[in-house]
Each structure stands twice: as C-alpha cells, then as structure tokens.
Amino acid sequence: MNFFEQQDRARRNSGRLLILMVLAVLSLITLTSLVLGLVWQLFGQSHTSLWLASDAPNSVLPSWPLVGCVALAVIGVVLLGSLYKQLQLSRGGQAIAERLGGRLINLSPQSLEERRLLNVVEEMALASGTSVPPVYVLDDVGINAFAAGLTPQDAVIGITRGAICQLNRDELQGVIAHEFSHIFHGDMRLNTRLVSVLHGILLLGLIGGFLLRSSGRGSRSSRDNSAAIVIAIGVTLWVLGYAGTFFGNLIKAAVSRQREFLADASAVQYTRNPDSIAGALKKIGGNLYGSQLQAGHAAEFSHMYFAAGISQALEGMLATHPPLDQRIRRITPGWDGRYPHVTELGAAMPAAAASEAAVNVHSLSAFAPGLSPASAAEAIGAIGDPQAPHLLAARSTLAHLDIALSEAAHSCNGAQALLYGLLLDPVEVQASQQLQLLQPRIAAEVAAQLEQLREPLRQLAPGMRLPLLDLAMPALKQLAADQFAALKANMALLIRADGRVALLEWTLLRIVERNVEGARAQTSRYQLQELAAETTVVLSLLARAGGVDEPAAHQAFSHAAGELSFPLDTLLPASASDLLALEPALRRLSLLWPLQKPQLLKAMARCIEHNGQINAAEAELMRAVADILDCPMPPLLGARG
C-alpha cells in the first residue's frame, strides 16, 4: 500500500473512528441523562414538581423535559472537556513532548548518543523530503519513542534515554523509521483526536469523584435530602464516566494495535533491514525496564508510543500495542523466541557511540547527481517510502555539507542568517543594496553570522538549498511569534529589493511559512478534473520554470497534459500563470482527494522532464508544490545545477 492509499485509508479510518466515538458518546449521554433524571426524580421530587410530565406525584418514570436538560448539561461537559484538551494540545507535538518531560536537543545535543540520534533523524527527514522535526529526549531508562503532532509540519519525535543508549545505530534507525511512518500516514492527528475525546468523557468521572468527596464533608442530616442527591449524582457520574472511558479505551486500543503493525512494516520498507526494528523490539523484551515511562501523564498518550509505555490491566483488551513476540515474528518469522540481555545505561561504550555517530562518512563517496530522466517519477513513487538511493543521498548531503553552514542551521541566529543569505542576489552590487536595507533591521549577532556565511553559501550547490533549509527548520520553530514576524518581514524586504519575485525566493518563503506557522488541517473535497483550470496554471508555470523559450514551454505543457485523464486548455500566457496566480490555484489543489494527487504529480514530473533534464529551480519548485499538497517528496536524484 503506497503513501496515497495510506492517506486515503487514514481518512476513512478517521471517519469510522469519529462515528464510533460519536455513537459511544451519544450512548453515554443518553444513559447518564436517564439515570440522573431518575435520581433527581426519586430524591428531589419536592423541588422538581414543575418538571414532572406525569400527574402522579410518586411516579418513578423520569421527566422527559428534565432528562433533556440533563442531556444538554452532559453534552456541554463532554464538549468543554474535549475542547479544553484540544486547546491544550493545539501547539502540536511540542505540547505533548513537554508534558512528558522531554528536552529539545536539536540546538544543543549534550552527548555522543544524542548527536547520533539527531544524525539519524536528519538523515531520515532529508531522505523523505520533509523538514527535520524537533527531537526531544525523555530521561527514562525504558526503551521507547513517539511521534506527536496535528500535522507533519508541527510533528515532533521523542525518544527515551534508554533507547539512545542501548540501541545500536541500525536499531535506532528502525525505531525512527517507525515514527516517521506515523507522521506520513496520518496517525498522529488521529491519536491526538483520541486524547481530546477521551478527556471529555473522563471529565464526567472526575466531576463525579469531586462531588463524592464534597458530599463527605457536607451535612448528612439535611431535611431536603441535598446530600443524598449529591452522592447519587456523584456515583452516577463517576461510574458512567469511567465506564465510558473504559469503552473509549477499547476503541483506542483496537485502532492503535493495527496502526502499529502497519508502521512496523513501513519501517522495514524504509530501512530495507528487518533486523533493525526487530532488534529494537527484542531489546525491549530483554531490558529490565522494558518500555516503561515514568512521566505523570504517560497513560494519557499510551497509544502514541513505539511500545507499551505503561503497565495495563486487562492487557489483551486494553493493550494499545500488539505483544512483542507477535510484532517480532511478523518481521522475522524465523525468530527463536529468545530476548538478548541488555546492559545497564552506565555500561554504554562512548567509543562505539562515537564510531556510529560518524556514520562512516569518510567512506561515503560524494553523491553524483548525474542525469536521470526518471528521477521525478521515482521520487513520486517514493513519497512516504524513501528508497536506498534517497537514504544514501541524504547521508552524503549531511557528510559533505560545509561545517559552518551545518552549525548555523542548528542555532536560532544562524538559521535566520542562512535564510537571509539564501535570498541575497548572486550579483554583488545588488546583494550590497539588499544588505544596506537589511542590516538596520537585524540584530548584530545575526548580521555577523550572515557575513561569515556568505562565502560558504556562494559555494553551495543549488541542489543543497532545500536540504539546508530543512535542517534549519527546528531552530526557526524556536523563534518567538514577534521574532518570526520580523523574520518574514525581512525576507519580504529582500525579495522585493529588485522589484521582482524569483521562483527560488517564493519557494523559500512558502516552505518556511508552512513549516513554522503550521498548515491548517483541511478536508479533501475535489476530483482533479474539477480543478482543470488550477492544474493549467501550475503546469504552465512549471513549463517555463527552466527558463526555456516559448516553443519549448508549449512542448513541455503538451507533454504534461498527456499524463492526465481529461483534456486541458493550451499553455497560459506568462502573465496569467505567474506566482500571483499560483497561490490560489495551489490552495484549491491542496483539497484534492488523496488518490487524485498522484495524477497531478506525475503530470508535473513529465512537465519538468520533457527535455531529459531537471535543473535545480525546477526540482525545488516541484518539491515545494508537492509539500503544499501534503506529499513530501524525496530528493530528485537526477536534478542538476
């Protein structure tokens, strides 16, 4: 099952889950309302005479107007609880990582093991065509990890100290590949929704417990039976709230177990090494602390972890993860059933870690792009499933990136300086004019770093610009809102300095905005044929992206139109297919159904490959458009400068 089929399946699963949860909540509300109405009827008749639907003063049937009012109150509690939790988690994965006690390491890894982890995550991100996610380390000795967020743009990866110290590099790569699968295939948003809904149901039980505790401190001899009413209501809410949470957890566990099997299979596809993830699972079985997490809120996010992070009663019913032996045997059917002995954290060998952290970069040959007419089509086929050549390209990119640029990408000031440097005109006179406009608006530290980075950036190969931007994204995400607003204003100033907007400039700005500010979750609603006009705009702009003459642009457009199952109008004039027209076209195209997107991407690929060559501007624009369509595209291996 490819990326687009997984996306479509995740969408359908989300719909089914929503229906199940709505039915569960409606059942809970109905039952709670009936019981509370009956309790009030029995204990508080003297106060509810106006609500009685029957003339019989001693009727035991609940009053339906009263039941309706109770139902509205219960609905309000569940909705408020869910909305509160949703607001609490609105910052995406960062909120969950911090709630579990995680520490960000992208800007300052503190050990060789943390550097090795960061290298593995960066390698996987570059190979996948996504920005590097923020990485958090949890100070737990158990072996575990998680991916969390609402969208791929606000995703984070968390991993325990036990995992980074006890797993070798291949095993660590298997775990990270498993978590990237959750990012690509829509699991994170589903998991976060589950947390919000379950919190709303749980709130009923918490209110019931509060009422029971309060009633114990109140008067038990009240003539109007108020204490008895409070106790009865508290018991009802406590029992039904926790019963609803139990059944909600059953749904959560059933969904989570299936997604774990799929993520395991994806990890094997990513790494092409079944022993990587199988080895990590075996070490969990042989680890004294297993996969346990000690954070106070660990149970709340139990379905997000790589392995079961908490001890659970009724393991078979409520287990959010399949048993270890089942997962291992699905990956390596010949496993003998024995778990390895795992050493204590203190026994880790720094020398071995240092060797692995280096990733044998000295033995890597530089990745030679060369010409590959099928590179764009291959990249589309590898969306959500990077292949060995993409991993090799990512590893080589990291190994050969100038050290000054790499270090700058891992600091807030340096990341800003990199962005400004990428937007400077290659002609020195125009670059000097841009700098005169920029320098009064930026901090002295940023200006100093920009000056130091200008020469390395001048020597940067065109195909390295997007990977460098991807590496800098975690640092940019640490900027405060006012700092990022100033950064965007400065980028706009540099872009408009020469009176025109180049493709590279537009690409950089849109990628930064989308990844730092976050992409709003949208509902798919269109078939590609319904957006023929928007498709024409995109293909017309791509046809001219390589700087070709008009006859060649017409040929490229016709070549691309042949990939579609419906006819297109002719190539639009340049004035009707500029960047101003591209913006609204992409907003509409982003609402395509998942299974409709490959056709558009393949047409785009044929457009930029019509002459057997792909230049850096075409490759960057193609990947930027794919990113806006929520289709993270691996590097185009045949792109040339």
From TrEMBL:
Pfam families: Peptidase_M48 (PF01435). GO terms for molecular function: metal ion binding; metalloendopeptidase activity. Its cofactor is Zn(2+). The keyword Hydrolase applies. Keywords: Cell membrane, Hydrolase, Membrane, Metal-binding, Metalloprotease, Protease, Transmembrane, Transmembrane helix, Zinc. Residues 112-331 form the Peptidase M48 domain. The keyword Zinc applies. Gene3D superfamilies: Metalloproteases ('zincins'), catalytic domain. The chain crosses the membrane at residues 17-43, 63-84, 194-212, 227-251. GO terms for biological process: proteolysis. This is Peptidase M48 Ste24p. It comes from Pseudomonas leptonychotis.
